[in-house]
Design brief:
heterodimer, A: mainly beta, seven-stranded mixed beta sheet, B: five-stranded antiparallel beta sheet, 0% helix
Chain lengths: 118, 114
């Protein structure tokens, strides 16, 4: 089975440019999460969706960040305009909440996108 | 909100020695608990999880963790370290009811000496 797919794996851009990160969750999963990982702040949850609807975006750092999930198999995280402090590894994760009456909370992570803003 | 504390940001062990990584959670109600591993330049991979069945949980790669309610702990162990265990390990907690978010600890980097 294909896991969570993220693209691009690496992105280098200049300050002020728009950056779009993409994620394809595991087929059938109903939750999707976006995280940011930095040395200083560790792993931070930015936003998560349930059935394509944003549930909690309290972790989104600024209005420069936006996320969408137009359908069950695709999500984007956009930064506009980008700044050097946005440099980090961005992870997408997906999860299946309930299956066969049992609850599952584990999340499956993609390989991440390493973003460098110059 | 749920939170976890990982004691020790770096752990160094000799090959063949015991690996012990500490995690304490803050919750009045036993939550769901997880250990994830992150190898260099990769995403996080689930090692094991506690969801209320047996308190001793076995995971992949020979790791196990014991849930101790009295100590609010979920420490990760492996009897004999391998070089391939060098990685960063994250403890995470999730509410049993309601909010579905995972809260991660700061991580512990494990190095294995030959």
């Amino acid at each position: 089975d294909a896991g969570v797919i993220q693209s691009p794996r690496h992105e280098v851009t200049e300050m002020g440019q728009e950056v779009t990160l993409r994620c394809k969750p595991i087929s059938g999963h109903d939750y999707l999460f976006w995280y940011r990982q930095t040395m200083m702040r560790g792993l931070e949850l930015l936003i998560y969706f349930n059935n394509n609807v944003p549930i909690d975006d309290s972790g989104m750092p600024e209005d420069r960040f936006s996320a969408k999930m137009p359908n069950a198999s695709f999500s984007t995280l956009k930064i506009q305009p980008s700044e050097p402090r946005d440099s980090a590894v961005y992870f997408c994760a997906s999860s299946l909440r309930v299956s066969g009456g049992k609850k599952y909370n584990e999340q499956f992570f993609g390989p991440g996108t390493r973003l460098t803003v110059l | 909100a749920q939170s976890v504390t990982q004691l020790g940001s770096h752990v160094s062990v000799s090959e063949g020695a015991l690996v012990l990584l500490r995690c304490n959670y803050s919750s009045s109600v036993p939550p769901y608990l997880f250990w994830y591993v992150q190898y260099p330049n990769q995403g996080l991979q689930l090692l094991l999880k506690y969801t209320s069945a047996a308190t001793l949980v076995k995971g992949i790669n020979g790791f196990e963790a014991e849930f101790k309610k009295s100590e609010t702990s979920f420490h990760l162990t492996k009897p004999s370290a391998h070089m391939s265990d060098a990685a960063e390990y994250f403890c995470a907690v999730s509410d049993r009811f309601g909010d579905y978010k995972l809260s991660f600890g700061a991580g512990t980097t494990v190095t294995v000496r030959a």
